[in-house]
Design goal:
By secondary structure, the chain is an alpha+beta fold. It has 6 helices and 15 strands. Strands 1-2-5-6-8-7-12-13-11-10-9 form an 11-stranded antiparallel β-sheet, with helices on both faces. A two-stranded antiparallel ribbon has the order 3-4. β3 and β4 form a beta hairpin.
Length: about 350
């Protein structure tokens, strides 16, 4: 893998990831951009009752919203039209978000472009490109984790207007937090309590239990297991675990890293075959990684959570009163039935 780093016109960093050494990517950004967002643009506040951190980023109200395809900021630049990516072509590109929720003392937000093709989704990529994306996620996790003040790195993809995506081009994001997120904090507390009570690792036991029970396992490979969790919150929700527990993406072994593209692409393609619809299934794909340091890191298990808010071909699962107001999830699809359906739509 080759990595090329350069700067955009407003001082933000952009990195190009290539499978070979021949690509020349350091084309200058000629746009007349104002200076990028500063630390005063966002603020982290603590909820006094829950203890959760909330990011206030009012400057994001003016961010790019559903631009036409011929004005996509994530496509390569062309003669007469400059985008966020100055190069005329790329394989995988990562750059600092122009409208970041986290900036300066509050963290960092990056955009990950998976392909230069505006009409391609992640599920359409080949295994080599998916492997390059995994390498970029791992590289960014390692570099951002080493920065002063960063406590957790979160790589994720939102796909589909139903999810709230405002740019149709296939891309994901990376958030480097200066705090440990509420979801991870709760997981760490549960895992620590289990360790103190039983001496065992709860992640390991959950994975072993799902593999032994079997009814919710969707895909079993040599180094990865994908299953619908026993208490799934979403209509179709899959958790993907490496068989050997590691805390984060940089810690993945070579064999697991090599097998991941095939497993992940198969699952994404199954999601697109869940419903009798022509458009791709909306989803969130979220890497859960251990905090950068601190108690509980070695007990944490890296895993990927993939879910869709679509519950039938023509119905969405909304987070209404019980979910949004009380965080009490109500799922319309039995996890066992969801797993059976995801097995049914496997590639032949």
């Amino acid at each position: 893998m080759k990595r090329t780093s350069t700067l955009l016109a407003d001082g933000r960093e952009i990195l190009y990831y290539d499978t070979g050494d021949g690509a020349a990517r350091a084309r200058p950004d000629t746009r007349p951009l104002d200076a990028s967002a500063t630390a005063s643009s966002s603020e982290v506040r603590r909820d006094p009752l829950l203890g959760d951190r909330v990011v206030i980023a009012s400057h994001r109200q003016g961010r790019t919203y559903h631009p036409p395809a011929d004005d996509c900021p994530l496509c390569p630049s062309t003669e007469g039209r400059a985008s966020e990516i100055p190069a005329p072509d790329y394989e995988v590109a990562v750059f600092e978000n122009r409208f970041p929720s986290l900036v300066g003392d509050t963290g960092r937000c990056e955009v990950v472009c998976f392909t230069p093709d505006h009409l391609t989704s992640f599920a359409d990529l080949d295994e080599d490109r998916a492997a390059l994306v995994l390498a970029a996620w791992s590289d960014r996790t390692a570099e951002l984790s080493a920065r002063e003040g960063i406590q957790q790195v979160y790589c994720f993809e939102n796909r589909g207007a139903e999810i709230g995506v405002t740019l149709a081009h296939a891309h994901g994001q990376i958030y480097a937090f200066t705090f440990v997120t509420p979801r991870t904090t709760r997981m760490l507390a549960t895992v620590a309590a289990h360790r103190a009570r039983t001496g065992g690792n709860l992640f390991d036991e959950v994975l072993a239990g799902e593999r032994n029970e079997g009814t919710r396992v969707v895909l079993e490979a040599e180094h990865w297991t994908a299953f619908v969790p026993y208490a799934a919150r979403w209509p179709y929700e899959v958790h993907i675990y490496p068989r050997h527990r590691v805390p984060d993406l940089p810690a993945l072994g070579d064999a697991a890293r090599a097998e991941f593209p095939r497993v992940y692409l198969e699952l994404l393609r199954r999601f697109d075959r869940l419903f009798d619809r022509t458009e791709p299934t909306p989803y969130v794909s979220a890497w859960h990684q251990a905090p950068v340091a601190g108690e509980g890191r070695e007990d944490f298990a890296l895993h990927l959570e993939l879910f869709t808010i679509r519950r039938t071909a023509d119905k969405l699962k909304y987070l209404a009163g019980t979910e949004s107001g009380m965080e009490a999830y109500m799922n319309d699809v039995r996890p066992e039935d969801a797993a059976a359906r995801l097995r049914e739509v496997a590639s032949t």
